[in-house]
Amino acid sequence: MPYLANLPTDLLTRAAKIRLAVFDVDGTLTDGRLWYGEDGRETKVFHVHDGLGLKRLQANGVQVAIITARISHPVALRAEELDIAHVYQGQGDKRICLQQLLDALHLAPEQAAFTGDDLPDLPPMRIAGLAVAVANAHPWVAEAAHWQTARSGGMGAVREVCDLILHAQGRSDAERERWQ
User: Does the keyword Hydrolase apply (predicted)?
Assistant: First the structure.
């Protein structure tokens, strides 16, 4: 996986501490486009690679959470399908939501990763021990990140974050063996 080659030691140290991986939705788990049917119902497209990455994080003891400003039924469905217990929709202040989640789980900020793409993601990124921006993130978000994915939101970027965390925690070889 070329995106895991030659990573800085500081980044690997940060990723090794992660016990909670938090993701924005629109522009991160999706490509950011909003789709509405003729009946007004919203649909979203999620990448299957991201889903498996999230399941593998959970299987390796890393909790997964979603914090998003919008409220969307497709997000609830996808989270349920992936067994994501921590889903927070309609969050106007994602930093407060992240801090409350950290408190509830008795985790320190350095044990959390936050991945996002746009300005509302900056406040939680600033407190997370590992801040990640997707490839097509707003420039200010990319500037605030400890790492930026090679892939865009909704196109496998979340899988890269999952792979980074597993790699830094020394679990990549076991994961590869699992699928042999």
Answer: yes
**What is the helix (H) or strand (E) element at residue 161, kind and residue range?**
helix 157-168
Convert the pLDDT of each residue in 37-86 to its tens digit: 899 898 999 999 999 999 999 999 999 999 999 999 999 999 999 999 99
Instruction: Tell me, yes or no, if the pTM score tops 0.90.
Output: yes
In a 3-state reduction of DSSP, which class is residue 125? helix
Q: 65 CB contacts (<8 Å, ≥6 apart)?
A: 20, 21, 22, 23, 84, 86, 87, 88, 101
Is 24 flagged in the annotation as binding? yes
Q: Given strand 20-23, what is the order of strands in its sheet? A: 86-88, 63-67, 20-23, 112-116, 130-133, 147-148
173 annotated as a binding-site residue:
no
Q: Which CATH architecture has domain 9-105+118-174?
A: 3-Layer(aba) Sandwich (3.40)
How many Å is the Cα radius of gyration of the chain? 15
Q: Is 1 helix (H, G, I), strand (E, B) or coil?
A: coil
User: Domain map of the chain by residue range?
Assistant: 9-105+118-174
Which of the four pLDDT bands, split at 50, 70 and 90, describes residue 3? confident
Q: Tell me if 26 is assigned to a ligand binding site.
A: yes
